[in-house]
Amino acid sequence: MAIQKHDNLINGQWVVGAHYAPNINPSNIADVIGDYTQADAAQLDAAVKAAQAALPAWSTGNIQARADALDKIGTEILARREELGTLLAREEGKTLPEGIGEVSRAGNIFKFFAGECLRLSGEIVPSVRSGVSVEITREPVGVIGLITPWNFPIAIPAWKTAPALAYGNCVVLKPADLVPGCAWALAEIISRSGIPAGVFNLVMGRGSVIGDPLVNHPGINAISFTGSQGVGNRIAQQCAANLKKVQLEMGGKNPQVILDDADLAQAVELSVQSAFFSTGQRCTAASRLIVTDGIYPKFLGAMKQRMAGLKIGDALGAGIDIGPVSSRAQLEQDLSYVEIGKAEGGLLVAGGERLKLSAEGFYLAPALLTDTTAAMRINREEVFGPVASIIRVKGYEEALREANNTPYGLSSGIATTSLKYASHFKRHSQAGMVMVNLPTAGVDYHVPFGGRKGSSYGSREQGRYAQEFFTTVKTTYIAS
Ligand code: NAD
């Protein structure tokens, strides 16, 4: 069968870019999902100009029409969750149930923001001057550049696109070049939703080629970015130089604290889920397991036993717990961090080796290192794979100190049956999201998402808090 070609969506037209790049299945590298066109700077410029041209009508248009279009997009995504979930599992390597879950999340996000189109409100407040009244309203920011990573190929494009459109902005979406399939499918659904040409544009390609032209384009009013800290830092500086609004969601080195009084079975299950499910490729994954002395031997034994039972294989295979790493480069990075951890004095007690299965893919046995300390690179740098390390501590105070001893601050978790420790941890954890007896990864779609310190910059994404970024406030004074 001929490999299907997929083009960029610019001003309502499907447009061929400079060349095509193959989208490869990490479970089986002989499987090419499709060819995806790669934009150059000129095509990026055309997309921004199309968005600029569409902005006046869209930003002031009928909100019922906006809500109907977003609702229609959400309905179609949900109706096709199995098919799109299969595409997602095939291109990114999440298991099929995880892929279907992510697609459902994307559909629900569009439904949520369909409702938000009708809920944007302002304030009328009395003036300190007699005979004057004051109105505070929210307006769209303009044309927004959305830059997304490979690990959530449909949920992140959805959680940026849906609020951007709901609040009346126009969009240029640049998805990760490793996984363009789901973003292309989303663009195709949007192209049939009744949203006018130019309001939403898809431009696929490498960050090194079209990243700078997008971020620095004078027609772009704001950038919403999710990805690595290095790229995020650079984008923040470029936006500051051009006085553009910017929002960054970046990496994590999330701690999972296990206290002596934890329910052992629950603590093991949520640690395995946090650290290794979705192949550890979640910004909210727990890569540092901070375990107190009293439970340490039992916890370690139970972890090794649970890990030995994990099924690693083709993301589409039945009963698979963990799919492949998403790319060769990421696999090499994961393996190199296992070696770094060992060289620093860590003890590899489970996994950490490449697995050869019947098809050639990027399979890695989830790795667990013990005897690690907070100062080691393995506990300070984001690996972004199924690699976790244990830090053994004496008690709760030390556990909290180590949990916060990181340049990141996205998500954190505690396993305990003590209300006192759970409440204290909730208050004193330096993270944007705190989980009590739940995995550090796995969040709702209608509430704010984001972190502190090196994990996030700018206002929160998702839920009603998304309006902070995707709108700008106007204060109007009226003589009465
Ligand atoms: P990445 O930074 O390499 O790439 C992210 C996006 O930026 C891609 O679309 C890429 O093409 C683009 N890009 C690359 N260079 C660019 C440049 N110079 N200018 C503009 N854009 C450029 O990240 P990744 O490897 O795709 O994703 C993994 C990272 O994402 C991890 O650090 C992970 O923690 C993070 N992440 C964070 C969250 C969150 O919400 N905090 C969620 C998911 C992933």
Describe the protein's architecture and organization.
This protein has 480 residues and is α/β, with parallel strands linked by helices. The protein folds into 2 domains: 5-250 and 455-479, Aldehyde Dehydrogenase, Chain A, domain 1; 254-436, Aldehyde Dehydrogenase, Chain A, domain 2. It has helices at residues 41-59, 63-79, 81-92, 96-116, 155-166, 180-191, 207-216, 229-241, 264-276, 296-308, 328-343, 396-404, 419-428, 467-470, and strands at 5-6, 8-10, 13-15, 19-24, 32-38, 123-126, 132-140, 143-147, 170-174, 200-202, 222-226, 245-249, 254-258, 286-292, 347-350, 354-355, 363-364, 367-370, 387-393, 408-409, 411-415, 433-436, 452-453, 456-457, 471-479. Strands 15-18-19-14-13-21-22 form a 7-stranded mixed beta sheet, with helices on both faces. A 6-stranded mixed beta sheet has the order 10-9-8-11-12-24, with helices on both faces. Strand 16 (354-355) and strand 17 form a beta hairpin. Helix 1 (41-59) packs across helix 7 (207-216). It is globular. The model has no long low-confidence stretch (mean pLDDT 97). Nicotinamide-adenine-dinucleotide binds next to helix 7 and helix 8. Homodimer.
